[in-house]
Design a protein that fits this description.
Length: 249
């Protein structure tokens, strides 16, 4: 029964996306909602991205410095390994797992509240494509803003490592900076940005599906928000594995 229910959910999600991914009836209204969603979902997420990236970057450098303290390895290895971890996985995958909790629950609870208070039904009665009107600006805004969040995460993560090197002196700041610059590949940055935009689409569209199809009362809205975070986390990890194999395999 659960398999049938899951297949039904996939079908409903696909049909919802078909309604969402169409040209807006009024572009001016879409642009207004797009800018509003960009601020609510993107700009308001910068602070949590900066704080978490700074401390995780510092911890990554600290852990690597403590665990590869070997005369067989050059000291700039700490900078190289820290950079690869932050660029390839942390600033895209791990940050998106965190954002699925903040942004995903925000979208699901907002649309769920509109559903149970019959605001969406009112839009449908007026002949408005409610899925396109409510969901498309959120998806477009979050996907569009994801590269900004990733760049902030990369910079503050590496800066966190810089600060920990400056405080502890192992490795030295000069050695850490040299390690960051050594063997650098610009393609890794673009890989991380592309992956994060795909994750941004998954987070916003899946959360919108659970919120849009919510029914009942406030308790069901909370449950829809929780389910969206759980499903998003699973999909992000599975997609990360597949995307990494296809892009870098």
């Amino acid at each position: 029964m659960s398999i049938i229910s899951s297949l039904e959910s996939v079908g409903e999600y696909a049909l919802l996306l078909k309604r969402v991914l169409s040209l807006p009836d009024r572009f001016s209204q879409f642009l207004k909602e797009f800018l509003k969603s960009m601020y609510a979902l993107g700009v308001n997420s910068i602070w949590i991205v900066v704080i978490i990236s700074f401390f995780i970057g510092a911890v990554i450098v600290l852990q690597i410095a403590l665990n590869i303290d070997s005369p067989m390895l050059p000291s700039f290895t700490v900078g190289v390994v820290s950079r690869e971890i932050i660029l390839l996985e942390f600033s895209s995958t791990i940050m998106c797992l965190i954002l699925s909790g903040k942004v995903g629950s925000n979208i699901a609870s907002e649309l769920g509240s509109m559903r149970i208070t019959e605001q969406i039904d009112a839009l449908e009665i007026m002949g408005v494509n409610s899925a396109n009107y409510l969901i498309l600006p959120k998806i477009a805004a979050f996907v569009f803003f994801m590269p900004v969040l990733v760049i902030f995460s990369m910079f503050t993560g590496l800066f966190g490592g810089y600060i920990i090197c400056m405080v502890l002196g192992t490795p030295s700041v000069e050695t850490y900076v040299y390690g960051i610059q050594a063997f650098f590949s610009e393609a890794f940055v673009w890989y991380s940005i592309a992956k994060s935009m795909l994750f941004g689409f998954i987070i916003s569209s899946v959360a919108a599906y659970f919120g849009y199809t919510a029914s009942g009362g406030a308790l069901e809205v909370g449950e829809a928000s929780t389910r969206s975070v759980v499903i998003n986390s699973i999909l992000i990890l599975a997609t990360d594995l597949l995307f990494t194999q296809l892009a870098m395999g």
